[in-house]
């Protein structure tokens, strides 16, 4: 017999142990399924094998689990509503004292330098006894709850399960794990086999206005706020004041219209309209240059006791912001008929890799569209101007409404701005990814 010893090895069949940074996004998994011809019926088709080896390399403890991942060597991935099932196998040549074998699902929030705070733990007993010997195979099956009861500040509330959140350089993480524990009894160290897995809640955006749905279906141009007031949110007018070519004082009125409802699926485009009006036509022309408009999608990560409070205090140690996308604009044909008005249409593409919005105690993700100061050659904004002219909170959903196909309205061949590197975030810790995956000896 090969007795399991404290110097055992762990691993995954097919490749070295995968890391949390290799967890695919919801959109990536969907794309892989479509490319491979696997529909929703194929479901959890990929089997993952994690194991512990004894001193001589024999796999004495194995965990098999099926998931939606495209690669068996990567970490398992599940969507909301999936059943997490598999089996645990033991192969021992001689009897080993044991108090039992369990498998559990654990989910928790971890902040860099702090212990994990569990918000979910479900456990199943696979075997009980005093001596473990020979070969065993135990099936297991879990269905994750859609909601959990979690303490939030000084009260307890019901919250939807959040997605796993393990981005590089982040100061906080949400980790889901499957843990097999072989209990060794009094004064002996338990032995555990652990794998993290990805969890993706399914969220949908709100349905667009009937007129926008019609435009999407027949490929016609989008109708603006005047003809489709239900389909747009028009933000309050903002005055832009500054100096043009060091000699002219200019004042231009700016209005931003954002496609409503203010919720959008990853992989879709957010329609935008900017209207500039004023008496100085030269100033209008300068500011109406598409490259002068700086509109960004920014993600805010709120941590700590006030994370779920939309009006909570935001400090540099509990609120971290990064840019997630850049809008691009082009002149509208309507501008040609109004000498003192310039209208630009635009879009902001929501990257497929973005995490959806979620609200959860200690770690909440929100998104906002922000119109920044105009940047144009020859124009200098007045001192004291706010760097953010207009801001509007939006919601990012993980999946598009079934049957709804949106498309870009940018002119053919139009050069779009390149999105920023999402990992080069503003205000995030440089070395935040101090995580630990290999908890093989747990109490």
From TrEMBL:
InterPro entries listed in its UniProt record: Arrestin-like_C, Ig_E-set
Highest taxon, organism lineage: Eukaryota
Biased composition (Polar residues): 12-37
Region (Disordered): 1-45
SUPFAM superfamilies tied to this protein: E set domains
The protein's name: Arrestin-like N-terminal domain-containing protein
Source organism (scientific name): Gymnopilus junonius (Spectacular rustgill mushroom)
